[in-house]
Specification:
By secondary structure, this protein is α/β, with parallel strands linked by helices. It has twelve helices and ten strands.
Length: about 325
């Protein structure tokens, strides 16, 4: 059952009301997803809570892009000061080792209370689709300011000077769409950059499979699901060397890591993959093999094991075979 109520600010109130009126007493555990601001469920729920953190927000500008004043500063205060206190007895689950280190560094949780579960992707047989005859690169994701898609476009403009037949596909939606289109026009590469907007899953897989490489210049990611999606299509990724992306990419094996907002660095990496065919093919093969480690079944089983282990410690009982919850409602 999926319940959708409230907006960016009122969803927390609705979650509290729904739990008190409808859910209390019917479930054994809560997975509390922290997307900048958690739901603070330990305050009103008397069952085990697992706090899921994709990435932290204290040392970046994401809050400023999502919230209006004064909620930007309130959100920072809640995450930095109140969240560690409220969730001090909860297990924290995060998606990468980089995010785990940030959580510890900022004092958001103790190291012994943090577990890592990498997100999965849907692994399907690689499409029998040839790469484009001409060099092609793809950005896949939301068109948000912190994603730094302008870096990819500026780097691509440098590549086109040496390889004029190269193309860039931008796949995704967001408030940066119009400004990115204007940037491509300003750089006189509008005929080389295709903005697809939202696409179907089949179209996404087809574009990933056809592209020579994907680019991900984001300033941070919790992990980098789009990286593994590209890898699962046999496509290596050029990305910023930042938390999350440096976890999902094995540098010079499944992709290339470049310093944050280094336009020349991204352009050099693109040119390297165009000019060195054997290196590109090697990255492609390794990227596909790497992606096979990250299925949703693997992620779900690891998360369930963490839940079962914590419940066993709390209630100190086991059953023969697989651990069973009292109510089997997760």
């Amino acid at each position: 059952q999926i319940v959708r109520r409230g907006g960016s600010y009122t969803v927390y109130i609705w979650a509290f009301l729904y739990y008190i009126v409808r859910f209390r007493g019917n479930f054994d555990i809560i997975v509390d997803s922290e997307n900048g601001i958690p739901f603070f469920t330990p305050i009103y729920a008397r069952i085990p809570v697992f706090l899921l953190i994709h990435h932290v927000h204290q040392d970046n500008e994401i809050f400023k892009g999502r919230l209006i004043f004064p909620f930007t500063y309130l959100a920072r205060f809640l995450e930095a000061k109140i969240m560690p206190l409220v969730y001090r007895n909860s297990t924290v689950v995060t998606v990468s080792n980089s995010t785990r280190k940030q959580i510890i560094k900022l004092g958001l949780a103790k190291s012994g209370n943090i577990e890592i579960v990498n997100p999965g992707v849907v692994i399907s047989p690689i499409l029998k689709t040839r790469k484009t005859k001409y060099p092609s690169f793809l950005y896949l994701g939301r068109l948000k300011p912190y994603k730094n898609i302008d870096v990819a476009i500026r780097a691509f403009a440098l590549v086109v000077k040496s390889y004029p037949n190269t193309e860039l596909f931008v796949v995704g939606e967001g408030e940066m769409m119009n400004s990115l289109i204007r940037l491509a026009t300003h750089l006189r590469i509008q005929d080389k950059v295709t903005f697809y907007g939202k696409v179907t899953e089949h179209e996404k897989t087809l574009l990933l499979s056809q592209s020579w490489a994907a680019v991900q210049p984001s300033q941070l990611e919790g992990w980098g699901i789009t990286v593994i999606e590209a890898n699962a299509s046999g496509t290596p990724v050029i990305a910023s060397n930042v938390p999350g992306l440096r976890d999902s990419i094995v540098d010079d094996q499944t992709g290339i890591l470049v310093e944050l907002r280094d336009v020349d660095g991204f352009a050099t990496a693109m040119i390297t993959l165009i000019s060195k065919n054997q290196f590109r093919r090697s990255l492609s093969e390794s990227a596909y093999a790497w992606s096979q480690n990250f299925t949703w079944e693997t992620s779900a089983n690891k998360f369930l094991n963490i839940i079962e282990s914590e419940i066993e410690k709390r209630y100190q009982y086991k059953t023969s075979g697989r651990f069973m919850f009292e109510k089997n409602n997760i």
